[in-house]
Amino acid sequence: MATSVFKSRRSAISGIAVTAVIGLFVLYPIFFLLQAALKQGDGTVEGSTGYGTGNFERLPNYSGIIWNTLEVSIVATLIAIIVGFLIAYILTRTNVPFRRGLEQLMAVPYYVTPLLGALAWSLLGEPHSGYINILWRALGGEGSIVNVTSAMGIAWVMALFEGSVAFVMISAVMQSIDPSLEEASQVIGAGRFSTMMRITLPLVAPGVLGALIYVFAEMLGSFSAALVLGTPSRFYVLTTAIYLMVTQYPPRIPLAAAMGVVLFAVMFLMTYLYRRMISGRSYVTVSGKAFRPRPVDVGGLRWVYLLLVGAYIFLAVVLPMLTLAYVSLQKLATALPSWSNFTFEHYRVALSQNAVRYAIFNSLELGVITATIGVALTGTISWLLHRTRLPGRAALEYISMFPQAVPRLVFAFGIMWAWLVLPVPVYGTIWLLLIAYLTVFLPLGVRTISSVLLQLDKTLDECGQVCGASWSQRLRTINIPLLRPGIMAAWMLLFIGSVRELGASILLVGPNSQVLTPAIVDAWNFSSSELTAAMALIQTLVVGIFIAIFTMLMRRRDLKG
Amino acid sequence: MQRQAQTQDQEVETAIEVRDLEIKYGAVAAVGPVSFSIPKGKQLTLLGPSGCGKSTTLRAVAGLEKPVAGVIRIGNRNMYSSAEHLNIPAEDRGLSMVFQSYAIWPHMTVYDNVAYGLKVRRKSREEIDAGVKRALALVQMQDYAARPASQLSGGQQQRVALARACAFSPEVLLFDEPLSNLDAKLRGDMRIELRELQRRLGVTSIYVTHDLEEALAMSDRIVVMNKGRIEQSGTPYEIYNYPRTAFVADFVGSANLIAGTVRTDVSARDGIVIETAGGELVHGTTHGRKPGPRATLSVRTVHLQLHAERPAGDRNVWPVTVARSIFLGDLSEIHVDWAGRQLIIRRSALDKIHEGQQVFLSVDPSRCVLLEDDA
Question: Across A316-382, where does the E strand assignment appear?
Answer without folding.
Answer: none
